[in-house]
Records
---
Amino acid sequence: MPSTRTPAAGLADGERRRDAALELLADRRAAVVRAGQRALLLHLFDAGTATADDVRAAVELPQGIGPRCYGAVPMALVDAGIIRAAGYTPTRRPEGHARPITLWELADRGAALAWLADHAELPAVEQPTLY
């Protein structure tokens, strides 16, 4: 029996699921996500563009924490209009097999400076491995 679901409905459902998963990661891994957000913005000030590879290089994951939490790093910054996608570039990590990843740029330098001033590093909290 053919599906009555439209491609647009499937895309919308996929985006909702992605956003829910990223919100959960941002909640459960708040200290790592905050460190990643700060690292991303600081790299953008220095280099003009940044990727998840730059965040991974700057923020060491605590023992037992999986790298999926890096996916939540740009979410709030994009929603706040602080950064925006500037295209795609191949990942520099060999295990990423040169797949395309988002290239970020500052959308609002003043808002980025204000965000950094208002969002200090969070203390690391030991949590059980969930992801």
---
Amino acid sequence: MGSTSLTVIITTYNESKDLLDTIESVRANTNCDYEVVVVDDGSNDNDGELIAASPNVSVIRHLERIGVGASREEGTRCATGEVLAFIDGHQRFTQGCLDQCWVISLDHNAIVTPDVCGFEIGDRLLHGAFFVRKTQSPPFSSEWRFVTPRQRITSISSLRAPAYVIPRDVYPKVRWSRLLRGWGGSEACVSLKAFFTKTPILHLHGPISYHKFKTKFHYEVTWDEIWRNHALIARICFSEATWYDYWLPDVFHEHLSEATRQEMDSDAVKAEHLEFQQIKVRPDHEFWTRLAFQKLPPAVNQ
């Protein structure tokens, strides 16, 4: 397969009809040269068989579910596009939505996300998201921006839900951890890495990505899994000192099993930590003073 302008990576689990409609929406509303990579994360409702004959679509199938972040990371390995678009298996797009995001991402060397709206009549239009530091729940979160921006392109501080596009040259700086499992923390991982590497996250006002916001999960999600993923993000993105002096004792210790605490010191986690520290350009303290807008914890040195 030769190189393309855009690779659309779709992660799916038991979505069948929605998945076919999502692919058709991409096909009907995208004008640039594109390919579609579907990562079927352990479905048992024939997701993969339904799209096997679709033109310009390749499928990666998992025998068992591994999770959103790890599946998206895997999808990039067979992508040929100069820009990567990450979407879910339950989305629709206005005409030219992904094309416009693709152009802006290359022009600004940035992550770009369009307006987002739910499927239901009366759902509000969402204009990107901003980072929120939680204190009584897993710490890395975000909230939607409801105010209509005055400019077509604005800077935002966090991703919250697909769709978003990332230039291939930028992706290695913000990639999902290969060790994420299940659900939880996938957008936070990319958002935090973008902050520490000074990678812009931009919102494009105008084109719309419609997203089916579900009232309940159609797979098992546990708090242990979510806390584990957030701990992994902190372990990778922050320095050793900040992890051991602040994040582990003050935030994560009581929420992690002994096995998970040991995992945070495994060779695999240490390797990802070192890999990211070598490309990180912001110091840890700027997370609180520039992103979370909170007082610096005493355990974190300036």
---
Amino acid sequence: MLNTTQKFWEKSWVIHIEEYLNTTPRAGIFIQNYFKNVKSILEIAGGSCRDSRYLANYGFDATGSDFDENTLEYLQTERFPNDKLKYSKEDAFSLTFNDNSFDLVFHNGFFIYFDNQKIINMLKEQARVSKKFIVVFIHNINNKQLIKIFDEKAKEDDLYKIRFFDENELSLIIKKSGIDYKNIKIMKFGGKSDAFYNKKLKNIIPNILYTFRKYLIPKLYQFQKWDNTERICCIIELNK
């Protein structure tokens, strides 16, 4: 798999961080809409921490973590000096938090750079620090157009050398991990419905529809075909 050393990520975030910061916090919006009884949230391998920042700004007790200290320092001191988000430098395989520290632990992508055993190790650590939920967003192998785009980009940028998953493979890895869970729910995430996030729509569609579109888009994802869907959203409800 990809060389995911700290040096690699330091270099990658210097190149990509502003691009990520300017992208809609879709995972944060999804979590905000889906989970009604969650207060404390940890984002793992957050990088730009775009999604956990969104959640912090909407009243969640959110922590954004990454193992690249330079990126976190840049966000905290230069880009968002008055941030409501808490930051923590963390190794996803050995988190510094106590058991059951958060209602929900999530990451966007991340598994896409690792083999099954490392994913299992991370799942165990995420289950340790979470009271209720683990949420995983990963790239969908059924979307052939997406794979083609990443293959082209990977020729010039190692960031796009990733692994794609289908729902059955992901479910099997979770079951093999041995974490104690009540259920696993697979949902569609990202795709053509994201077009409704376009700010230009404000001049085209009714104001009420524009205002509430972020509540509608996560629901619209579920009506897409899998081959038009960007990612798999896996919600693991823990047995605690």
---
Amino acid sequence: MAAHTPQTAAELLTAAVSRYTDQILRYEPLVLLADHDDDSVHKMRVAVRRIRSLLRTHRPILRKAKIRALDRELKWLAGALGRVRDLEVQCARFNSGLRDLPAGVIAGSRGPAWLIDLRRAEDQARDQLRRELASARYRDLARVLRTLPRKLPFNRKAARPASKQTRELLAKAIRKTRTASDAARGLPAGAERDAALHQARKAAKRLRYTADAAKPKVKEAEKIARRAEHLQEVLGQHHDSVVATGLLTDIARQDSTNRVEAFDLGLLTAAEQCRRQAATRQARKATAAV
């Protein structure tokens, strides 16, 4: 039996939200059981972010007052998952970076003391995440998510044909992505441009998720989603490098860091700066493609 093709904007959004609520609930037990980076935290976090993004980009067809509380709770859950995921990414990044150093000093089989401390922080964040997933607050949110696809608070615009409404939403998301990217490109290198590129990344991510949801009804959505994903990935590499550089600088300034470790930290920081510059160049081409 052929799958039903969404005909209205409401049906299109419902199908997308249903897909991602299922993912959140499916990955929850895997996150609770994981004691290392098995990608379950990342996948659950992405599903949460996709729902938040879709609810925001599709606000023209939703009753806004009805989704504010849900957005606040999804933001809380994304933050809890993000604390673990960010440490997973940085630990893996620094492990790889140390292996690539021409004269890296690895103190014992587990690495330098500062990296051991980061792994310990990751374990603590994972324990905290488990406690939050066992809380009454999360149980209440999970109950809402189970029924969300059937109870989305649509307004009258949601009854419009899916292709027409979705094209308007896509066009708006494209404009926002280009505007954010152009604003960042006009800034000199530094913290302000880094922050602006991060905003452009978030705009590209929202565009990608909007295009993914539109695929059943908009022929060009596949290409838009693919190009937005590339821009998001390039800007994600830039943001990860900015975060890594700040973390490395903080570690190097600690009194407990010895000279040998500081030297290695300096080499890692220089490598991150090269990655950041390369990502900035790639972002220009990726933005033009969008």
